[in-house]
């Protein structure tokens, strides 16, 4: 049975942090792609900050769809589901904000999340304002794992004390960090629909951020000309009908 909630309660938070992964969906205002990304290990990368606030660490990947979409319109849906004998699906409808690594807000936010943000390749924190939460039965989700009692059957395979991840980050040499930045420069500067992506990657490519943002805004408006034209024609039709019926009288003074 589907239920809706205006905020996150303690049971919701406990359920989220026990799952082995979660999913993030986003889309541009105008474009051909709807993005869906899996994110791993919520216990180390995700935090519930309040009744209507949560955040997760965004690691470097082969694209930057979520970052681009959040920069453009802020719309994000986050989904958790259990793969054990207690089925449940949880969707959180959110407005997102990107806090990139290097931003003055990044380190204070990471500290407030209660995590040691030592994930290799962390490039941003996605801050999420939750305005609606939905739960449903989840009986269509397959059972994975051998434990009859576990609600998170992958937990024993994925959880550790976080030390290995932290050590990996500390042991990254300067050459590896440069390679990572080079990868972001080539792979994370724009979305599949050409929206502006990671700002650090765009600056590394020599882009003028304000200029490129303005151009992206103009492209979005151009893609919406069909709606603008349809609205204009509908307005003209309404005015013509009202004028012919005598309802609309326009007085012109010379």
UniProtKB/TrEMBL annotation:
Keywords: Membrane, Transmembrane, Transmembrane helix. InterPro entries: Split_barrel_FMN-bd (IPR012349). Residues 150-172 are annotated as: Disordered. The keyword Glycosyltransferase does not apply. It comes from Lophium mytilinum. This is Pyridoxamine phosphate oxidase. The keyword Transmembrane helix applies. It comes from the Eukaryota. The chain crosses the membrane at residues 227-250. Residues 163-172 have a biased composition (Basic and acidic residues).
């Amino acid at each position: 049975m589907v239920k809706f909630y205006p905020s996150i309660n303690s049971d919701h938070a406990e359920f989220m942090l026990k799952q082995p992964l979660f999913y993030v969906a986003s889309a541009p205002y105008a474009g051909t792609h709807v993005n869906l990304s899996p994110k791993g290990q919520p216990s180390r990368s995700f935090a519930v900050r309040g009744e209507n606030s949560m955040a997760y660490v965004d690691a470097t990947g082969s694209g930057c769809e979520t970052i681009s979409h959040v920069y453009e319109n802020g719309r994000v849906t986050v989904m958790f589901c259990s793969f054990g004998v207690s089925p449940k699906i949880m969707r959180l409808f959110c407005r997102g904000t990107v806090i990139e690594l290097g931003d003055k807000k990044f380190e204070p936010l990471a500290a407030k999340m209660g995590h040691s943000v030592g994930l290799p390749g962390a490039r941003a924190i996605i801050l999420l304002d939750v305005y609606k939460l939905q739960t449903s039965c989840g009986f269509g989700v397959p059972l994975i794992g051998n434990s009859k009692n576990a609600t998170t059957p992958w937990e024993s395979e994925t959880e550790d004390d976080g030390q290995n991840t932290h050590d990996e980050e500390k042991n990254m040499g300067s050459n590896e960090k440069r390679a990572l930045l080079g990868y972001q420069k080539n792979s994370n500067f724009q979305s599949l629909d050409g929206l502006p992506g990671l700002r650090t990657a765009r600056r590394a490519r020599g882009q003028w951020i304000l200029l490129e943002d303005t151009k992206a805004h103009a492209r979005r408006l151009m893609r919406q000309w069909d709606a603008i034209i349809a609205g204009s024609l509908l307005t003209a039709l309404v005015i013509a009908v009202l004028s012919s019926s005598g309802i609309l009288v326009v007085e012109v003074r010379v």
